[in-house]
Each structure stands twice: as structure tokens, then as C-alpha cells.
Design brief:
The chain is α/β, with parallel strands linked by helices. The protein is 27% helix and 34% strand. The chain is built from eight helices and 16 strands. It has a seven-stranded antiparallel β-sheet with strand order 6-1-2-5-4-3-7. A seven-stranded mixed β-sheet has the order 11-10-9-8-12-13-16, sandwiched between helices. A hairpin with a 7-residue loop joins strand 3 and strand 4. Helix 5 packs parallel to helix 6 and helix 6 runs antiparallel to helix 8.
């Protein structure tokens, strides 16, 4: 069992947890995730590790309350224990000195994007972060994103903060004014699909971190399968990051609706 050290509401439905997990904190890298279970009969749910503190031996998880399992997790308070927490899982982000990297994060996707922004900056890249939300109140982790970015572009659907428009509008503005060597995108599947379509038109290499349904997180169940470049891949062990221009997003969106 893993003890919750701190809990903070980032919005009405988004909670940040700092959880005691010293071994995971020590070995985690950008892009890794964990499987979380609350209660002995709870389902296993994947959450990307948003941050880690090796001195305190803790990891940070950002959870959006959308269903029964996330609701159970969000009811826990500091001092409570998470029944099971397994990781780090998945393949870490490939980080290299590339030049200019655009990091496009939408909604809760800004949380798993944060360690990637930090890693890309530490590698010596110029990092332009484009973060988006429906409104100012739903925008997450702006201060932390600014800390590790050379520039931050903010987009809101209603224009209540930053520029009015979709995340693709912000990404396109950057691409049109300067050479972009890589785009990384994390967020709702439909958002990543349209980011990929945009960057394909500009021949900008793009990586998407996929958020498929998972059951075990170790490649045994097949629930997270996606088609990438015409081949079946498992997000939990082959990903979660893939060449966005090769992902069959329409198939992925169909499978995400399985339990709707």
C-alpha cells in the first residue's frame, strides 16, 4: 500500500496527489506511467507520472474525476493509502537534442506533458509549450510549464485567457513562424488526431502519447491495442508514445467508446 502525502484540487474535477513510492520515484523517467487500484475489488487504472521527488521518495499523479474508479481515488485524503500502485510501466520518452520542440498539451494532458517539457529542455532544446483548455478555470499547471519552457502559448476555447481558439491554432502559428524539429502531443484522442493531421501537412515529425483503455498494463489483456503503421501495437508495453502520423486514430476513438 502507498500512502498519500499531499492532495490538492487543481480544478473542480482535477486532483493532484503526491504519493509515497520511493522505488518508482528513483527509476521513473519522462513518459512512464503506473497502474493504480483503490480497494481490493477496484479496477486497475493507468495514470502517467507527472513528477517525482527522489529525496522525498514520492511521485505525483494528476487525476481527473470521470468515473467510478477515479471518483474513489479522488475521495482519498492525505494520510490515506492507495491499495496497489505498480510501475514504472511503458517505454520512456525518447529525449535527444533536436532543436525546437513544440509540446502541445490539452486539458489534463498538460500533467503528463510536464516531465517531457522538463526533459526536452534539460537536453538543450528550445521548448515551445502550447497548452489549451476550454476556459481559464480549467487550465492546468501553467506556472510549472513556464518554469521549463522557452515560450508558452495558451489557447482557450472561449477566449477567457490567452488566445481564443483550438490547440491546433496555437501549434500552427509556431510552425508558420519558425522551423519545428519535433511536436509532442498529449490530450484527448480527438485533439491528438487533429494535431497529427496539422503537423503532417507541414512535415513536422510528431509523437503522440496515447490514452487507451487498459486492464493489466503489462501486455497480457490486449485491451489497449492500437494500429500503428498498419501493425497492431499495445500501448502499455510498446508505448504509450508512438509516431502520431502512423496511428489509426479513428479506430482508437471507436474503441474508446466501448464502455460509453
Amino acid at each position: 500500500m502507498n500512502k498519500i502525502i499531499a492532495k490538492e484540487y487543481l480544478s473542480d474535477k482535477v486532483v493532484r496527489f503526491e504519493v509515497e513510492a520511493p522505488l518508482i520515484a528513483k527509476s521513473r523517467r519522462a513518459g512512464h506511467f503506473v497502474m493504480v487500484r483503490v480497494g481490493k475489488k477496484g479496477e486497475r487504472v493507468p495514470y502517467t507520472i507527472a513528477a517525482a521527488d527522489t529525496t522525498k521518495g514520492t511521485i505525483t499523479l494528476v487525476v481527473q474525476r470521470v468515473g467510478k474508479s477515479s471518483e474513489k481515488l479522488c475521495r482519498l485524503e492525505a494520510g490515506d493509502f492507495i491499495t496497489d500502485l505498480v510501475g514504472p510501466l511503458g517505454k520512456a520518452t525518447h529525449v535527444d537534442l533536436l532543436g525546437t520542440v513544440v509540446c502541445a498539451g490539452g486539458g489534463v494532458g498538460v500533467a503528463p506533458m510536464l516531465p517531457i517539457i522538463e526533459a526536452m529542455k534539460k537536453a538543450g532544446n528550445r521548448v515551445v509549450s502550447v497548452i489549451a483548455a476550454r476556459s481559464k478555470e480549467l487550465l492546468l499547471l501553467e506556472e510549472q510549464v513556464r518554469e521549463h519552457s522557452d515560450e508558452v502559448v495558451i489557447m482557450t476555447d472561449d477566449g477567457s485567457y490567452g488566445k481564443k481558439g483550438l490547440i491546433t491554432d496555437g501549434v500552427e502559428r509556431v510552425i508558420q513562424r519558425e522551423k519545428v524539429d519535433l511536436c509532442v502531443t498529449i490530450g484527448p484522442a480527438i485533439m491528438m488526431k487533429f494535431v497529427a493531421e496539422l503537423t503532417r501537412n507541414y512535415n513536422v515529425p510528431t509523437v503522440a502519447s496515447l490514452n487507451t483503455i487498459m486492464v493489466d498494463g503489462t501486455g497480457m489483456c490486449g485491451a489497449c491495442r492500437v494500429t500503428v503503421g498498419g501493425q497492431t501495437r499495445f500501448v502499455c508495453i510498446d508505448g504509450p508514445e508512438f509516431d502520431a502520423h502512423q496511428v489509426d486514430f479513428d479506430e482508437m476513438l471507436m474503441r474508446l467508446r466501448a464502455y460509453s
